[in-house]
Hints:
The chain has helices spanning 2-16, 39-48, 109-120, 195-198; strands at 20-26, 29-34, 56-64, 72-80, 85-93, 99-100, 124-125, 154-159, 164-169. Helix content is 20%, strand content 28%. Strand 8 (154-159) and strand 9 (164-169) form a beta hairpin. The protein has a single domain (2-192), classed as 2-Layer Sandwich (Beta Polymerase, domain 2), CATH 3.30.460.
Amino acid sequence: MDETLRELKEYLAGVLGAALVDATIVRGELTLRVKRNTVVRVLTLLRDDANCQFQQLMDVCGVDYPERAERFEVVYHLLSLKNNLRIRVKVDTDAETAVPSVTGVHAAANWFEREAWDLYGIFFADHPDLRRLLTDYGFEGHPLRKDFPLTGRVEVRYDDEQKRVVYEPVKLTQEFRVFDFMSPWEGTPPRLPGDEKAGA
């Protein structure tokens, strides 16, 4: 398998040329990092080339690295049933720069790209219907970003008096806990209350 992946890596390095930023094989998986503006051409080649035939798009997901200038990765997972191989394609972007939509290459990308937009705020240019998929219509922010607050920004409840769903700013009803280290889930301190009696 590793020899097949090495041959495929060398072949793709020659075919993709300047579009390819990096190609690595880690733990028996080939990963290509390509330039953002070439992703449609790259995925089309991977689908149509007789040596590749990665005709199934299995997943598109986002990854957030807030410390990077281009904080987001868009990761495409492809499968070739003909060759019994999988490949991963990565593209880097930031919060303002759009990634070209690949819905014209793989129709399955439609909802995957909508999910990445909804949860990470990664914008896909020329997407036919880019709107939220998992969060509510009035939702603020993108909940899988690393800088999104753990409590969220609003809470939702049904108001029996108004007979409708009400959105309100988050209110923490209790203070943050003070840990006494007596719970087995929190770990134990080196000396527990009562240990002084054991030496007597």
